[in-house]
């Protein structure tokens, strides 16, 4: 856990979080831990989630409507599935103070920027994506250190106010993240490879194993502590969130999937024709990738208490 900040500086005194699931509740926890002078108002479309957030004292206040939640906000952080960003933004339009900055945490950026720009004409919108999460969802899954030493990619639209970009970047740095600026389209192509495709592969392999249960039932259960278990963790990720990610980042995901399928076919051929050297070289290269991630200190830093499998 980071030590709490003592000054607000360029930061925000009133933060509103819309969507109090894994990421929204983590933002709320982190703001309360790192920005003790700031108030956090929360809102979620699901009344049960609002009740849980209230019972947990997650926020300074949980509002009954989206409009009431933003009435005096300086920063609004939209933490809803990417397919719901447009409607969540439309619901705050009439009550948003003129000076407020709107940001979001969506896993895809081009489609979200388009949806927010449509719903909130004239509003300062600085989208962002904290590249940190778990397979869990809901208000009880969040924790304050989720963003600690993780990337947060800020994807401002062309011509965005540099002061607003810096304020949103400083907000994420305050929550412990390392901030990088990127164009939305570029973000979507990079994340299609590093996040979206791996999830699709995990969903596929677990689904395939499940379909083959007749043959593999005992093996799936018995050996699931190994590599397969890592896939089942990813494949347990929220279905709504990931449906929206794949539909919102369709082009980039399909492009990367095409490339992946070609590479997979090459390995398939190498196995068929006993090309051991080719397999050895391919696996040596990927082992080096893993080692360089660890050397850069970017290995998985999630605390055990945030995990469902402990
Ligand atoms: N889960 C991750 O690992 C991860 C990581 C980084 C970014 N993200 C992004 O963060 C966002 C939230 O994901 P999450 O994992 O917190 O999901 P979640 O399912 O835990 O929480 C989403 C919450 O949004 C609420 N919601 C849905 N539509 C709403 C609306 N119109 N208005 C108000 N509330 C609404 C839901 O009731 C739910 O409580 C997504 O855009 C996702 O792409 C997720
Ligand atoms: O670690 C996990 O469980 C995640 O899936 C987190 C993960 C990722 O792919 O790294 C998932 C989606 C996000 O948008 C950002 C982070």
Automatic annotation (TrEMBL):
It comes from the Bacteria. Keywords: Amino-acid biosynthesis, Aromatic amino acid biosynthesis, NAD, Oxidoreductase, Tyrosine biosynthesis. GO terms for molecular function: NAD+ binding; prephenate dehydrogenase (NAD+) activity; prephenate dehydrogenase (NADP+) activity. Residues 13-301 form the Prephenate/arogenate dehydrogenase domain. It catalyses: prephenate + NAD(+) = 3-(4-hydroxyphenyl)pyruvate + CO2 + NADH. SUPFAM superfamilies: 6-phosphogluconate dehydrogenase C-terminal domain-like (SSF48179), NAD(P)-binding Rossmann-fold domains (SSF51735). Its EC number is 1.3.1.12. One of its GO terms (biological process) is tyrosine biosynthetic process. Gene3D superfamilies: 6-phosphogluconate dehydrogenase C-terminal like domain, NAD(P)-binding Rossmann-like Domain. NCBIfam families: PRK07502.1. Belongs to the prephenate/arogenate dehydrogenase family. This is prephenate dehydrogenase.
């Amino acid at each position: 856990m980071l030590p709490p900040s003592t000054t607000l500086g360029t930061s925000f005194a009133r933060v509103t979080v819309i969507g109090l699931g894994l990421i929204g509740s983590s933002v709320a926890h982190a703001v309360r831990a790192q920005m003790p002078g700031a108030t956090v108002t929360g809102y979620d479309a699901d009344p049960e989630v609002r009740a849980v957030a209230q019972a947990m004292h997650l926020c300074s206040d949980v509002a009954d409507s989206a409009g009431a939640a933003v009435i005096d906000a300086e920063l609004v952080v939209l933490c809803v599935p990417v397919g719901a960003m447009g409607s969540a933004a439309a619901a705050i339009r009439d009550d948003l103070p003129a000076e407020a900055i709107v940001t979001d945490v969506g896993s895809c950026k081009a489609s979200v920027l388009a949806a927010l720009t449509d719903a909130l004409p004239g509003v300062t919108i600085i989208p962002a994506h904290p590249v940190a999460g778990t397979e869990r969802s809901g208000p009880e899954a969040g924790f304050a250190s989720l963003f600690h030493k993780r990337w947060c990619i800020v994807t401002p639209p062309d011509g965005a106010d540099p002061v607003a970009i810096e304020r949103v970047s400083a907000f994420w740095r305050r929550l412990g993240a390392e901030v990088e600026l990127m164009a939305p389209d570029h973000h979507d192509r990079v994340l299609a490879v590093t996040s979206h495709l791996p999830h699709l592969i995990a969903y596929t392999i677990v689904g395939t194993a499940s379909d083959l249960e007749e043959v593999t039932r005992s093996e799936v259960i018995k050996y699931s502590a190994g590599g397969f278990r890592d896939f089942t963790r990813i494949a347990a990720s929220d279905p709504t969130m990931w449906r929206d990610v794949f539909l919102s980042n369709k082009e980039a995901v399909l492009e990367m999937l095409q490339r992946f399928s070609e590479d997979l076919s090459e390995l398939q051929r190498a196995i068929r024709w006993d090309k051991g050297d080719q397999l050895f070289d391919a696996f040596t290269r990927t082992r080096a990738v893993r080692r360089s991630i660890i050397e850069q200190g970017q290995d998985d830093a999630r605390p055990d208490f945030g995990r469902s499998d402990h």
